[in-house]
Amino acid sequence: MARTTDTALKTRDADETLPKGKARLDLFKFVPFRLNRLAAEVSAALAVEYQERHGLDIPAWRVLATLGFRNDACSAQYISQCTRTHKSTISRAVTTLLHDGLIERVENAADRREFRLQLTKSGRALYEELFPQLLRREDEILSCLTAQERKQLSALLGKVEQSLDLIQTSEEADAKEAY
To answer: Which residues does the UniProt record annotate as the domain HTH marR-type (predicted)?
Structure first.
C-alpha cells in the first residue's frame, strides 16, 4: 500500500504552490480515483449500445444483465448487491422494466411472501441481442492491450476483488443466493 500512496502523493519539490513539507494527493495517480473514472467511462461507452437503440439506461441494463446471466430468478436486493448500485436506483429500474414487459415477478417457492425477478421472453430476447454487441464493444475498448496484458489485467482485477471479498464468478454468486 505504501508504494501506491507514495505514487499518489506530490511533495513541495514537485509542486511549488504547496507549503514547505506538505504533500498533496495526485488524483491522477490515486488508484481509487483512476478505477472510478475508468468504470464511468467504460460504462458510458457500453451504454451507447443499449441506450440509443433500446432506450435503456445504465441501471435498467444492470438489472437485465444480472437476470440474463443467472439460471433462476433473484431478488432486487441481490441485483443491487451484485452490481453495487443503490437499492432505490435498482427499484426504479425494476419498475420501468416491469412496465415495459421486459421482466416479471415470480413467487419465491421458499418464501411465498417474497417475489423474485426474471426476464420475460422479450426481456430474454433483448438480452440475447445485446450481450454480443457489448462483448464486441468490450473488445474494442481493450484493443489497446495484448492478449497477455488482458489476462494480466483480469488477474490483477481479480486479486483486488478478492482482497475486498467480492464475488468473482457466476457460480459463486448463484451459490450465495442472497449475495
So the answer is: 32-162
